[in-house]
Amino acid sequence: MTKSILLVGVGGQGTILASKLLTTGLMEAGYDVKMSEIHGMSQRGGSVSSQVRYGEKVESPVIEIGGADILVSFEKMEALRWLKYLKPEGKAIVNDHRIDSMPILNGKAEYPEGINEELVEKANATIVDVATKAKELGNPKVMNVILLGALVKSMGLDEIDWERIIKENVKERFIDLNIKAIKVGMDLVK
Q: Domain Pyruvate/ketoisovalerate oxidoreductase catalytic: where (predicted)?
C-alpha cells in the first residue's frame, strides 16, 4: 500500500529540508520512495510544495487531487490552498502560522479570516502552534523539523532512527537543536 504525503509552505520555511529528511528516513527503513518538489517563487516567499510517496513499490512521485493521505502545512493559508489534494479520509497537520504574501504586503489582497475554522470544518485537521514551540527552543527556523516530528508520529514512523538521520544531514552546529525539535514535534501528537 503506497502512502502519499504532501508538504506545503512558503519559501524559506525549510519545507524541502523536512522532505529530504523524511525521504532519507523512509528509504533507510526499506521503503521504495519517490519525491518531487516544486519551488515556485520560493526565494520571494512564494508557495513551495514537496510530494513524498512511499510503499513497497512506488511508480510515480506525483500526488493527484484527492490523493494525499496526509497534508503537512508549514503556513495555514497554504493548507487551505492545497486542501483539495487531501483524501476525504486524509489528515492535515497545520502550523498555526501566518506569512503575508507580496500581494498582501502591497495592499492588493487581504489575508483571509477564519482559516483554522475552515480547515477543521473541511478536513480532519490538527492545528498546532509550532512557532511558539520553536521560540521555546530558541530558534524559529526549526518549525520545519518540529512539523516533521509531528508527521513522523502521526504516520507511525517513529521507530526510524531520526536522530542519526538528522546527524548525517544537518549542519553540525544545528544537530542538537534539530534533535530537540523532532522530539518536540513527536510529543505534539497523541
A: 11-187
Sign, Cα dihedral of 137, 100, 144, 148: positive
Q: Which of 71, 114, 64, 118 is nearest to 95 (CA)?
A: 71
CA distances (Å), origin 99, targets 104, 107, 110: 10, 14, 12
Per-residue confidence (pLDDT) for residue 41, from 0 to 100: 54
What residues make up the domain containing 100?
Answer: 3-188
Is pLDDT above 90 for 63? yes
Give the list of residues 6+ apart from residue 168 with CB closer than 8 angstroms, or none.
24
How far apart CA 154 and CA 166 sit, in angstroms, is: 19
pLDDT range class, residue 96, cuts 50, 70, 90: very high
HSE-CB for 151 with a 13 A CA cutoff? 31
The CATH number given to whatever domain includes residue 102 is: 3.40.920.10
Q: Quick: pLDDT tens for 27-51.
A: 999 999 999 977 655 455 677 889 9
φ, ψ (nearest 5 deg) of residue 42:
-60, -30
Domain count, the chain: 1
Helix (H, G, I), strand (E, B) or coil at 37: strand
pTM, two decimal places: 0.91
